[in-house]
Amino acid sequence: MINNQPNRKTGLLLVITGAICWGVGGTVSQKLFQQYGVSVSWLVTTRLLIAGILLLTVQYLAKDRSQILHVWKHKKTAAQLVIFGLFGMLAVQYTYMASIKLGNSAVATLLQYLAPVMIIFYLILRKQAMLKRQDMLIVSLALVGCFLLLTNGSFSQLSVPAAAIVWGVLSGAALAFYTLYAVPLLEKFDSLVVVGWAMIIGGVALSFIHPPWKIDFNLLTVEGYLYLVFVVVFGTMIAFWFYIESLQSLSPKETSLLGSLEPLAAVLTTVVWLKEPFEGFQWLGATCIIGIIVFIATTNSTDSE
């Protein structure tokens, strides 16, 4: 499955760069919210529309361009794509950004990564999987990690507002749906087509609430526009593209493991760049959640191999 050494090095560079871009993109979004007063709806709309167009452009120039329109030829596939765009892509993006604005990028990203735990519960309830000892370990780590992350070890107070926690948990649920629902679409079409159209669908839908052109552009300085470009291009389009491309030369195990750099990048940039307080027990909680990601990636890949 793994190709020659030069391709392998390229794959490692791609997945590491993509994961870091994802994590840092959330922190840069927090900067736009705090310093420039950008609204969640406007940023999500703009991010989805531009990134979706860029992804389909890559598909048109570099891959099978016929798939771009072929995905709409069958009613069932078209309906699945619309559902995925609204309740998968749009839901993930909006809830994640709302959690960042009300809390911070580090907590939002770590809460979003509770999605694997939610997927485990869903599969068990649907009787598509049996409850294993490793599942109990994952759930225990998740509960302990969340408690430490959100309370810093104190029962009397939360380290972030309750609303940020709610949006963060909803983001994890949306990511779980996104991951499960995408499978049949990705079996038929290139991922750039599926995700590109899903972004455009979500962006168009949210445009009815907050059109992308309705913003006081004088609010943004040159620095602000550079942040916006980073969020759209690097934090969304490049991050996804590089992650997918890395699978051409790396195993899913390696790609998943290196993808855990995303929450780590979000935590580090939030603490170092934005000077957000992050105390001892919170670091322990973050370690628990990142440990879940690494454990699941290793276990799943071992099972599949």
List its traits.
305 residues; mainly alpha; 14 helices; 78% helix; globular
Summarize the structure.
The protein is mostly helical and 305 residues long.
Summarize the structure in words.
With 305 residues, this protein is mainly alpha-helical. 78% of the residues lie in helices and 0% in strands. The longest helix has 32 residues, at 5-36.
Question: Could you give the order of the helices and strands?
Answer: HHHHHHHHHHHHHH
Question: C-alpha Rg, in Å?
Answer: 19 Å
Number of helices: 14
Give the % helix: over 70%
Structural class category: mainly alpha
Topology of this protein?
Blueprint: H1 5-36, H2 40-62, H3 67-70, H4 75-102, H5 105-112, H6 115-125, H7 133-151, H8 162-181, H9 183-188, H10 191-207, H11 222-246, H12 252-259, H13 261-272, H14 280-304
Helix pairs in contact: 1-11, 1-13, 2-4, 2-10, 2-11, 4-5, 4-8, 4-10, 5-8, 5-13, 6-8, 7-14, 12-14
